[in-house]
Amino acid sequence: MSATTTTAPGKGPVDPSGRGRPRGAGLPRGLAWLVLRQHRTALLVCAAAVLLGSAWMVYQRGAMLDSLRAAGWNGSWNGTSTELRDGNLANRIQNTINSYGSSLDSLPLLLGAFLGAPLISSDQERGTVRLVTTQSVSRGRWLCWKVGFALTLAALTVLPLGLVYGWFWRSAGPFAPHDWLSGGLFAATGPMPVAQALFHTALGITVGALLRRTVPAMALTLFTSYAVSLVAEVYRDRAGTPRRIAFPLEGAQPAFLDHVVQVDQWIGTASGKLYGWGTCVHEPSPEACRASLGIVNSVWDYYERGQMAGLQWTWAALYLTVAAALIAGLLWRSRRAPL
Question: How far apart are the first and last CA of the chain?
Fold first, then answer.
């Protein structure tokens, strides 16, 4: 049996079964439409940042490789092929890579302050929370949509930028910065950009929901995020176990140590007893002092680049755990008390 159709005056055929495709079908509706409409400015700004930032790094990567080829580098990592006719080019490349890494490291903080903090607090100031939640939408559902949108947008903003930046700095080969632990390079590659963006955005959402005022929430979020970043950078090397090497104090330093990140330095005896590197420095005869203590070795604690991923995933797990706890606490509170 086939459904019959009728013709409405001036409107053409009409399907009485109601199964016709309505105008606007497939577009966001309900809460999805409300959230996208409300935060369309943030969506456009983040999209522009991704497109422009990625395009700029792609351009800079090409310019960097052209400069390296013009300076005599043939793309090999070994031997004298890493020597350049322009002695300052390597320093300029490292400064550029570090500069971009620092900029990307700051992006999660800005997302927390300008995306996370106003997310709930602006609705609390305007009364939008009460208006929406007194309709047919529960507080929990509305909050899940808002939080989910902010966290998704934050992750999708930093993820492509982090991938392009990682591709950029790895293309520099032996001319990339060796001290990847203390600069923005560590925080702007691997899982770190997404983990930090989710943490700082979750922090901003929580602060905004508690303060209920947009501007104070943004200021407090930015201050707290910056403080957390400073503390994390100080304790960054504690997330792993550095490797240790001992070599003769008066001998040549092993060549591979030029490409590692030193986290501590000692002097020690043949039996392995360690002293601070400044031991005997101020004595009248430092050599005699060290001989009396049996000091014969220079000892380094260091990280190789192969350990970078392990440190990043450890810190990323910590950030994600705290972010999940913040969001879970916010959702729990919303069920027990009005926002």
Answer: 54
Distance in angstroms (rounded) separating the CA atoms of residues 131 and 297: 72
Q: Which helix (H) or strand (E) holds 303?
A: strand 295-303
Q: Which two tokens stand for residue 136?
A: 């047919």
**How far is the C-alpha of 336 from the C-alpha of 143, rounded, in Å?**
13
* Segment of 27-31, 78-82, 157-161 carrying the highest mean pLDDT: 157-161
Helices within 22-180 (DSSP H only): 31-38, 40-70, 89-111, 117-126, 128-133, 139-170
Phi, psi angle pair for 66, to nearest 5°:
-65, -40
Alpha-carbon distance of 61 to 13, in angstroms, equals 58
Q: Which of 112, 331, 126, 65 is nearest to 229 (CA)?
A: 112
Kindly report the number of other CB atoms within 10 A of residue 315's CB atom.
22
Q: Name the one residue in this structure whose structure tokens are 């930032």.
A: 53
Contact 159, 193 (CB under 8 A): yes
- Chain segment 15-25, per-residue pLDDT in tens: 444 444 444 44
Token pair, residue 7, equals: 């013709």
**Spatial separation of the C-alpha atoms in residues 113 and 218, rounded to whole Å:** 5
Helix, strand, or coil here: 90?
A: helix
Instruction: Look up the pTM and report it.
Output: 0.84
CA distances 287 to 49, 99, 246, Å, are: 58, 42, 18
Q: Exposed (0-12), middle (13-18) or buried (19+): which is 126, by Cβ within 10 Å?
A: exposed
The alpha carbons of the chain give a radius of gyration, in whole angstroms, of: 28
CA distance 244 to 75: 31
CA angle 104, 321, 114 (to 5 degrees): 40
**C-alpha–C-alpha distance, residues 214 and 207, integer Å:** 10
Which of the 8 DSSP states describes residue 190?
A: T
What is the residue whose two structure tokens read 């080969």? 173
